[in-house]
Amino acid sequence: MKALNLHGINNLVYEEVETPSPKRGEVLLKIRACGICSSDEDRVMKTGTYHFPTIPGHEFSGEIIEVGEGVEDSYMGKKASVFPLLPCGKCSACKSEQYPMCSDYKYFGSRNDGGFAEYLAVPIWNLVILDDSIDYKVGALMEPAAVALHSVNIGGVKKGDKVAVIGTGTIGVLIGAFSKLKGAEVYICGRRRESMEKAESFGFETIDIQRLEEKVTEKTAGERMDVVFEAVGTNEAMEKAVLSTKNAGVVVAVGNPKSDFRLPKDVYWKILRRQLQIRGTWNSDYSEKNNDWKEVARLMSEHGFPFEKLITKTYSLKEYKEAFAALADKSVSKTKLMFVMD
Length: 342
Ligand SMILES: [Zn+2]
Ligand SMILES: [Zn+2]
Description:
This protein has helices spanning 38-47, 92-95, 136-139, 142-154, 170-181, 193-201, 212-219, 235-244, 265-273, 292-301, 320-328, and strands at 2-6, 12-16, 26-36, 59-67, 79-82, 85-86, 106-107, 119-123, 127-129, 162-166, 185-190, 205-208, 225-230, 245-253, 277-280, 311-315, 336-340.
């Protein structure tokens, strides 16, 4: 099969590799769409993967075209998305079904080969079967969507809440979408006019980050927001998030940090005096009891939000140079870039 194989930092190669075959308890997925995550940009261009070569890509969906030993034939032909984490099953986090905190996990697209390929063998435990009405491209948005929904659940967003999301990237917009679907009043905060217009095209009110405190005061009669999401990963955004949250409100730390964080003393004081909760969020829940993926699959099949509009552009695997150049070009506003395979 053809795949994009990472042989070293900045050395992604479109080449022929061996087609995987499903082992016991696995299916073979014909990958139909795979999103390119900003973490893939770092993996490919800056940090590399855990070992080389590795096929990146952890946001994918596809069609089940073969079943391994012990897997029912009824899986054949089904549409599926994939929870990309392969837990060890032995550590204390795994025993309590808190898989993202597993101390010895594997991961499609970083520690293991992933979705920038035509086929992948996947254990049935990782499959999230999709409704036929969900497009493969929308199905490939399930991973970032589950991450976003998980953070919305961590923030405890409920009907009537006033919510600010700092960050206009894919995760930021998806956090806005799920907060809205939960009945909150949502404001998306960004810097660039183009990104704000994109958020507005989804029906969100936007706030320029430079004027965040002033606008928050205006929109909430001085009470500030119930929940604020920091989905950028910068010191400035975290400062603004703390300052925009109401007494006893919740700040959710979502953005991967770009540098060390240091808060001015008067901002830090606000965390104490306003009794703020600062909550971290990581990945998504995939347990029997709490399963962000199943909730996303249900919300996507209800078509209450135009998820497909998040996809700015699609590329074939062969067009990877163009795709990564577009990803690296920060002068162009975009949400999700995606590979599609026929
Ligand atoms: Zn990702
Ligand atoms: Zn584990």
